[in-house]
# Entry
Amino acid sequence: MNVSQIIEWISVIIIFIGSIISVISAYGMLRFPDVYTRAHAVAKSATLAVLSCLIGAFIYIWVKDNYVSIRLILGILFVFITSPVSTHLVIRAAYRSGVPLAEGSGEDELKPILFGEDKSTKNVQKGE
# Structure
């Protein structure tokens, strides 16, 4: 085996790892109870999976053809920047439209700030 073949195998392994992470992301999408935890699981792992596949493809093309693909570099940057931002906006829209948290998620500390306090929390705080 020469160096070129070793680097090709490394790129194949990186692409395979990205595929495994993508399957884990799909499992998280099915497993978690509400939109917030599902979006978190998908955003983190799917971004890593896509980046791994694109980086593996970039390395393979670079070694195999001696060609630096600007399109792959731009794709890597685009996914790296836009995926977390778009997930944040989707979760924010879901929260502001009133999608409830799963039971056992903890206390919702943002609700009184965004939507105002409801009467039940006012009465508890006043001791009535």
Observations:
- The chain has a mean pLDDT of 86.
- DSSP finds five helices and no strands in the chain.
- Residues 3-100 form one domain.
